[in-house]
């Protein structure tokens, strides 16, 4: 009787496992191969832009995402400037000779020698024509004034470990958005494995803040933990950003977090690119260096 019961138990378990092996069909959205733009305007810096396109999940991974032979135009006060595509020494992605930013930590495949002017509240308009695939995107950005750093200081506890505080004045009569970053020692560092031997240094903190959400006293800021020591160097930056860039940063970070968590539904990334994806924005910021005393 025990042998028969054991055989029956095995058959029941096997039958249950068979039911768990049912095939489930999952419909995946197909990519529309839309244009993706990333362009940050800075006063006194040349116009530079990264132009790529979305790819399907099942696309071959070695397909180059760079969009070639596009017409890229930035217009400001009726003055049009056409960005030139970076040269290639061959046909593949690796043969690009890109444009680099000032500290050689970011590269772009379209650029111009024209320096971006500054005039508060001036509107910039971006237009991109994909001449090979008949695609067109458009975006606009407004130059915001930089907001000066009000407080940048280190305060020590009894163990001689300091925190850093970074603040600025906030206009309570308007809605304002900020990005605050704090770096230790440097904004970039040498890397023998990176092209041009420089990579951007990860900030100690990188916060986006909305003034009306938490702050009501005319001052907005962020503080670090007690992680700084005597003779350390801290670099604080406060960006005065648009709502479009604020939404882009928040949703991009949410999407990155969702990719690392199988129980979180992926979020849609906000964009200000009409008919495409990405961000076109003006970066206005104030930066200071704090040398923590001995």
Total beta strand runs: 19
Structural class, from secondary structure content? mainly beta
Radius of gyration: 25 Å
Distance between the termini: 84 Å
Task: Give the helix level as a range of percent.
Answer: 10-25%
Task: Tag the structure with descriptive keywords.
mainly beta, 8-stranded mixed β-sheet, 19 strands, globular
Provide structural commentary.
The strands form five sheets. Strands 9-8-3-4-7-2-1-18 form an eight-stranded mixed sheet. A four-stranded antiparallel sheet has the order 15-12-17-19. A three-stranded antiparallel sheet has the order 10-11-16, with no helix packed on it. The chain is 13% helix and 40% strand. The radius of gyration is 25 Å and the shape is globular. By secondary structure, it is mainly beta.
Quick overview of this protein structure:
The protein has about 290 residues and is mainly β. It contains 3 helices and 19 strands. An 8-stranded mixed β-sheet has the order 9-8-3-4-7-2-1-18.
Question: What layout of secondary structure does this protein have?
Answer:
Elements lengths: L1 H18 L15 E7 L4 E8 L16 E7 L2 E7 L13 E2 L6 E2 L1 E6 L7 E8 L4 E8 L6 E8 L5 E8 L7 E8 L3 E3 L7 E3 L4 E6 H4 L4 E5 L9 E9 L1 H17 L17 E6 L1 E8 L3
